[in-house]
Amino acid sequence: MSLNAVRLPANEAVRESSSQSALSECVSRTVRRYLADIGDTPCDEGLHALVIREVEGPMLREVLAFHDGNQSRAAAVLGINRATLRKKLAQHGLL
């Protein structure tokens, strides 16, 4: 296990997850599984960059689809301006 990783005791992990939102719990479970899978192997781009890259694209796609492609409404829901949304959509090849 990496020096920065924290392994919670089983009972504490259960207690923590009961106070988390469904999305937060899903992210926690996925990151825990990822860390267990890679062990001490370094993540070249950094875990934060990896998670953002893997999560941002699908999130943008789903929010945009939910709002029937309306970028202004999607941007408002995401809490970003429309120009930022367009930039992110382009970065993820979604334009």
Write a brief structural summary.
By secondary structure, the protein is mainly alpha-helical. The chain is built from five helices and no strands. It has helices at 10-18, 22-38, 47-66, 71-78, 82-91.
Main attributes of the structure:
disordered N terminus; DNA-binding; 95 residues
Could you please describe the fold and organization of this structure?
By secondary structure, the chain is mostly helical. Helices cover 67% and strands 0% of the residues. Helix 3 crosses helix 4 (71-78) and helix 4 (71-78) packs across helix 5. It is globular, with a radius of gyration of 17 Å. The termini are far apart. Residues 1-6 and 11-15 have low confidence and may be disordered.
The mean pLDDT is: 85
Helix and strand string, N-terminal first? Answer: HHHHH
Structural class: mainly alpha
Q: What ranges have pLDDT less than 50 throughout 5 or more consecutive residues?
A: 1-6, 11-15
User: Which sheet architecture does the biggest sheet show?
Assistant: none
Strand content of the residues, in percent?
Answer: under 5%
Helical fraction: 55-70%
Distance between the termini: 39 Å
Number of helices: 5
| Beta strand count | 0
* Inertia-based shape: globular
Rg: 17 Å
* Oligomeric grouping of the chains: single chain
